[in-house]
Amino acid sequence: MTILLLASGNPGKQQELRALLSALPLDLRTPQEIDLHIRVEESGETYAENARLKAQLYALRSGMWTLADDSGLEIDALGGAPGMRSARIAGPARSDRDRRRLLLELLQPHPRPWTARFRCCVALVTPTGEADTAEGICEGEIIPEERGTGGFGYDPIFLVQNSKRTMAELSLAEKNRVSHRARAIRALMPTLKRRFELT
Question: For the chain, which domains are there?
């Protein structure tokens, strides 16, 4: 069975990716499981570039097929911010709660609704460095109070479009039907099947 390395140290992302890829006959591994510890400088100018950078470095170091993603929250009232800086908006070593609190402070001067979207780009890289990418978007809005206990990151304040629930109020199965990461993986699925010669 072909090994596919999930190039993320984020337990929430790992859990979602495992579920999204569970139908494929692949041996999914995490960097921790193969004792591979890499710090990747996300120096790309787009989500696709960052996802590719991560996947290519992990593939080079491991010699394995590798999947990586880069994602962010884009809020219209903030001109698309925090965007690619979503995980770093509050500075280093800050918690998800710290980031949510800072974001809501930045939004206070702006009238609601605070329309927003999660954007994700995934990159699949071969052991020789060839890369394929795909993107997914989930529309919604930011709300001023946290709701729900699932997910991670900004999920508790992101109200999913055409829904009365935040991303954190969805079960994993529900989230994996509508999320930006789920849509990116679905868009990549034909490439995954072609690359791994699955019918």
Answer: 3-195 (3.90.950.10)
